[in-house]
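Quiz preparation item.
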């Protein structure tokens, strides 16, 4: 296939591009800045190059948009604006380019997040759950998805609502670090939900969304078995043979992280009903299996 990835040098994008290159596909990575060396098996183009020559993206099978400012920074007024605007800008910029193509991509796979559901300790959310702007993250995601629906309305659109992605980079190394030092434990009261997915399943799900013409609209990129923060930590401790005993108080995290502390102190229980209805099978549906693979890899 002929595929393009916006944000293809990030955590998810780099794994996805590597997966597709091994399958023999033709990959174009869309980046903000030019690089001296082209990665093996891929072509790099910048947004500026595409603005002057959008036809570099003619006849794609699909384009995957993973672009957006990282959430993992203190949420000041300026960074919150950048987080939201970077996501909206990437959608509109890509939309401007695709509008000019003679042969448009057959599918657009657009990143989103389970934060769109807001936070809850009681409710279980699937792709048919109602969404509304009730906090910063849900507001960002609602606007993000609305922009994608508006700009990519002439092609099959899949909105991948991602949970916590577990891999050798990203959030998981930080989550397991206290356990390696013997001071792991629950965060806050430990009852908040963690909707997670192994990086291998994340990549496979995006690939499945590209290949499966019946898949469209919101798709939760999460394991079928979300867990509470307390059980998440206990599982890490069990696999690493480390104790689970030292709690991180909510007030301390709020003082250190500010509003961003919502990422670890609150959560939502999201399940991937749409993916399973479409026949997708997870390699690592259970948390202990996922952590063992990451530990032994």
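Solution:
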């Amino acid at each position: 296939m002929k595929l393009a990835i916006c944000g293809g040098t990030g955590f998810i994008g780099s794994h996805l591009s590597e997966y597709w290159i091994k399958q023999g596909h033709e990959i174009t990575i869309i980046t903000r800045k030019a690089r001296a060396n082209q990665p093996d098996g891929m072509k790099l183009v910048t947004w500026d190059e595409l603005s002057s020559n959008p036809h570099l993206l003619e006849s794609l099978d699909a384009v995957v948009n993973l672009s957006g400012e990282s959430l993992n920074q203190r949420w000041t007024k300026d960074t919150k604006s950048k987080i939201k605007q970077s996501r909206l800008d990437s959608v509109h910029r890509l939309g401007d380019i695709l509008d000019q193509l003679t042969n448009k991509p057959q599918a657009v796979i657009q990143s989103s997040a389970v934060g769109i559901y807001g936070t809850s300790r009681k409710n279980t959310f699937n792709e048919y759950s109602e969404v509304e702007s009730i906090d910063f993250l849900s507001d960002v995601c609602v606007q993000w998805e609305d922009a994608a629906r508006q700009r990519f309305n002439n092609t099959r659109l899949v909105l991948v609502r991602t949970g916590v992605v577990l891999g050798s980079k990203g959030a998981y190394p930080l989550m397991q670090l206290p356990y390696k030092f013997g001071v792991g434990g629950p965060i806050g009261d430990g009852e908040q939900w963690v909707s997670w997915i192994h990086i291998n399943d994340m990549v496979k799900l995006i690939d499945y969304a590209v290949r499966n013409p019946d898949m469209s609209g919101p798709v939760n990129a999460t394991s079928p078995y979300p867990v509470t923060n307390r059980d998440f930590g206990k599982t890490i401790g069990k696999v690493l043979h480390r104790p689970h005993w030292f709690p991180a108080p909510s007030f301390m995290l709020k003082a250190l992280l500010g509003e961003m502390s919502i990422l670890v102190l609150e959560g939502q229980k999201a399940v991937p009903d749409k993916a399973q209805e479409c026949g997708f099978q997870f390699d690592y549906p259970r948390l202990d299996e996922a952590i063992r693979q990451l530990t032994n890899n």
